[in-house]
Design a protein that fits this description.
heterodimer, A: 281 residues, mainly alpha, MetI-like fold, elongated, disordered N terminus, B: 543 residues, alpha/beta, 20 strands, 37% helix, globular
Chain lengths: 281, 543
């Protein structure tokens, strides 16, 4: 009986899911699958140099051709997906958690707590964004771990602001007042009553942010501060392929298409998610 | 008034296309408006009354489509008009005013510009001339100092003033018909009385034909010659006001009339005021205007609003006390101060002889159980993510009211107390009607088995028939659970039905307090008299 009810709710939800969410999730899902299955989908080592086989166009042997070191572009593309998806995830999860927590606490308690946290936020925002991210990475040590740390230190402000504006409204909503009236404690009010109702815009933004994180990560690779060659990463691949754009366009164009499709997938998913969360309320 | 028909709606069918399928908003609606007449359209939310009015001006939302029927205005087929004809019709021949004057005025336009806009567009008058006429129109709306007010923005005006500006803008081009969609619903009763008075005068002076849409039969009875009763997109009954209200033919009309709070029986003779269960002694609640703590440091608490000022009030055990006042009177602040949602600046709140405002946290938690509150807005007072049973389980668990294994049972009992089916408990607020949500809100308050229940404007967002049911529920719960009830409302009629004693508030101060019959029969204070006079009454009593 309960199971039957559960399925019917699930089916109703699935039917209600906006097409943009379905398509977006499909694209992102496909890339995740390709990334996971990369070692089995291609016979080539993504970093193995083959000087006899450089700049070969697309063929049955090398589906997407080879680059200036004779490495298989298809293999590098799939293995690159692993790195780029990892960046998309770890680049947003820290800022999301820390920013959400700070925004929630600041708005809920208000007063001095709010004033102090928001001044810290103002200071962070007052630095030019890219310069700050790059500076932090450079100070730590070039590499992905520094990139994640740097993003967390800089990017939390967006999530804190999103959360704060939501909570400022919600904390005076009647259901929150009602919870206080029945004696529910602050922690539970914040976690059970406010957070689930306030998180929707942040979740939507995470999708967009994931794309930005990949693009910025790729730029860092370009500057030599992110992923280091010969590691396969889409941004690094584009940077390397750019020199050969006339003779061997496939080196740069395919990673470009990969970034575009993944970005499209994320933003479609974000759009659909926004619709779905809006409908749920 | 002649018998000439100026506007007729014939068999109008309107569908809305939504994510959840097609909604039939109007299923064949017909009515006619005679020249110089005031026609009332009454019905509850979802009855289609607003859709019918908007269809006349073809102002429907994008997802709406007119599937059938005709609208005739002075032998013109409104549905066949092109964009130019429609624009002329809207500004010059038929004008419309809306429920919420604060959102229907452009915040970046002065009152004068707003009023003069139609003149500039339709009559092509100069800026100076538009301004001159706007001043005159504002004066016609009985706005004092219209020369000065012509340059004010919407946010600088009160709700009543905004509605006057909106009426002035609507009448700028001297239309033949004014459609007023719930023009006074968001206003205080005394302001409502002024606006209705203004509309009545305008109709006489200008020979306007008027369509007045309202959920309030009292307003319609006062203002209109004929009335159309609508329900579920159909016209249920139509006729002269005397006929429909005096001798309603349809069951639904009878129910609507019986639900009018003013026609409901007043509360019966009170028991003598028992020992006080709750006492407010010199209670003051002030709010600082500075928002941040830096502002507060700078101003040293300078500008404050005295929401409640030095109030003494005792509530006897078992009594039902009504607190009445208009917006800004401080009536809701009292409730919030009692349950600890508003800071007590001076004075004391005593519950059963104990100071509540000075209690330690642990003790206060216990007190919370004794005094519970039901909130105003059923659409925001429940957590949209919680199912009904999660909402009800929360207070039970927090206070350990029942052992874990009995919580499900207790939830069913609570639902039964407020007349809800147990199978509703898996639903979330989005899947409940306004009345059902409000019942869940009441059940949540009852979960803690309180001795005092505070109800803050609990029916103001509900339809009249639902309001009547909820008031009935309160009366029953009070008897069966031996509750002390504090009912807060802007509506004296609602309070009269339920409470034996009434307190009238204004500007944070107590104006008058006394037994309900006494307040209604012999009000002592001018303000109370004004409030009483402002209640729209249904003149003809049903047989």
């Amino acid at each position: 009986m309960t199971a039957a009810v559960e399925t019917s709710t699930f089916q109703r939800r699935a039917r209600r899911a906006p097409p943009t969410l379905v398509v977006g999730a499909f694209i992102v899902g496909t890339w995740i699958a390709l990334a996971l299955l990369a070692p089995w989908l291609t016979a080539y080592d993504p970093i193995a140099v083959d000087v006899t086989n450089t700049l070969k166009p697309m063929s049955g042997e090398h589906w997407l051709g080879t680059d200036s070191f004779g490495r298989d572009v298809f293999s590098r593309l799939l293995h690159g997906a692993r790195l780029d998806l990892q960046m998309a995830f770890f680049g947003v999860v820290g800022p999301l958690i820390i920013g959400t927590a700070i925004g929630l606490l600041a708005a809920y308690y208000g007063g001095v707590v709010d004033a102090l946290l928001m001044r810290v936020l103002d200071v962070t925002v007052s630095f030019p964004y890219f310069v700050l991210v790059i500076a932090i990475v450079a100070v730590l040590e070039p590499g992905l771990r520094s990139y994640y740390i740097s993003l967390t230190l800089v990017n939390w402000v967006t999530y804190a602001r999103l959360m704060r504006s939501q909570v400022l409204v919600l904390k005076n909503a009647e259901f929150v007042l009602a919870a206080r009236t029945i004696g529910i404690r602050d922690r539970r009010i914040m976690l059970r009553h406010i957070l689930p109702n306030a998180i929707a815009p942040s979740i939507v933004f995470v999708m967009t942010d994931a794309v930005l994180t990949i693009v910025l990560g790729s730029s860092l690779g370009f500057l030599g501060l992110g992923v280091q060659p010969p590691e396969p990463e889409w941004g690094v691949m584009i940077a390397e392929g750019q020199v050969y754009l006339k003779q061997a366009w496939w080196i740069a164009v395919f990673p470009g298409i990969a970034i575009s499709t993944l970005a499209l997938g994320f933003s479609l998913a974000a759009d659909g998610m926004a619709k779905l969360l809006h409908a749920a309320q | 008034m002649t018998d000439e028909t100026i506007l007729s709606v014939e068999d109008l069918v309107v569908d809305f296309e939504t994510d959840h399928g097609i909604v039939h908003a109007l299923r064949g609606v017909s009515f006619r408006l005679r020249r110089g007449e005031a026609l009332g359209i009454v019905g509850e939310s979802g009855s289609g009354k607003t859709v019918a009015c908007r269809a006349i001006l073809r102002l429907l939302a994008e997802n709406a489509s007119i599937k059938g029927g005709r609208i005739w205005f002075e032998n013109q087929d409104v549905l066949a008009l092109d964009a130019v004809g429609l624009s002329r019709l809207r500004g010059e021949r038929i004008a419309m005013i809306f429920q919420n004057p604060s959102t229907h005025l452009d915040p970046l336009m002065t009152a004068g510009k707003q009023v003069g806009e139609a003149l500039r567009v339709h009559r092509g008058v100069s800026k100076g001339e538009a301004r001159r006429q706007a001043i005159k129109l504002l004066a016609d709306m009985r706005i004092a100092e219209s020369e000065r007010r012509v340059d004010t923005f919407a946010h600088e005006l009160s709700g009543g003033m905004r509605q006057r500006v909106m009426i002035a803008a609507a009448l700028a081009c001297s239309p033949s018909i004014l459609i007023a969609d719930e023009p006074t619903t968001s206003l205080d009763v005394t302001i409502q009385a002024q606006i209705l008075d203004l509309l009545r005068g305008l109709r006489r002076e200008r020979g306007l034909s008027m369509i007045l849409v309202s959920h309030d039969l009292g307003v319609i009875a006062q203002m209109c010659d004929h009335v159309v009763v609508m329900k579920d997109g159909r016209v249920v009954e139509t006729g002269s006001v005397e006929e429909v209200i005096g001798r309603p033919r349809e069951e639904y009309t009878r129910r609507l009339i019986a639900s009018q709070p003013f026609l409901m029986a007043p509360a019966s003779a009170p028991a003598s005021l028992g020992e006080p269960i709750l006492a407010l002694e010199g209670l003051s609640v002030h709010y600082g205007l500075g928002v941040g703590f830096l502002d507060r440091m700078r101003h040293h608490g300078g500008r404050t609003i005295r929401a409640v000022d030095n109030l003494d009030l005792a509530v006897g055990r078992g009594e039902a006390l009504g607190i009445v006042g208009e917006s800004g009177s401080g009536k809701s602040t009292i409730a919030r101060a009692i349950v600890g949602l508003a800071p007590v600046c001076e004075g004391a709140i005593l519950c059963e002889g104990q100071r509540v405002d000075a209690m330690a946290a642990e003790q206060r938690l216990r007190f919370r159980r004794a005094v519970q509150m039901v909130f105003q807005d059923p659409f925001t007072s429940l957590n949209p993510m919680f199912t009904v049973s999660e909402t009800l389980a929360e207070p039970l668990r927090q206070h350990g009211m029942r052992p874990e294994r009995d919580i499900g049972l207790r939830i069913d009992e609570l639902l039964a107390m407020v007349d809800l089916q147990p199978d509703l408990k898996r639903r979330r607020p989005g899947q409940l009607s306004g009345g059902q949500r409000q019942r869940v809100g009441i059940a949540r308050a009852l979960a803690l088995e309180p001795r005092v229940l505070i109800a803050d404007e609990v029916t103001s967002a509900l339809d009249v028939t639902i309001q009547a049911q909820i008031l009935g529920l309160f009366a029953r719960l009070r008897r069966s659970m031996d509750l002390t009830l504090i009912l807060i409302s802007h509506d004296l009629a609602v309070v009269r039905h339920l409470c034996e004693r009434i307190v009238v508030m204004r500007h944070g101060r107590l104006v008058e307090a006394g037994r309900t019959e006494r307040i209604f029969a012999a009000p002592e204070h001018d303000y109370t008299r004004e409030l009483l006079a402002a209640i729209p009454r249904v003149k003809a009593m049903p047989a």
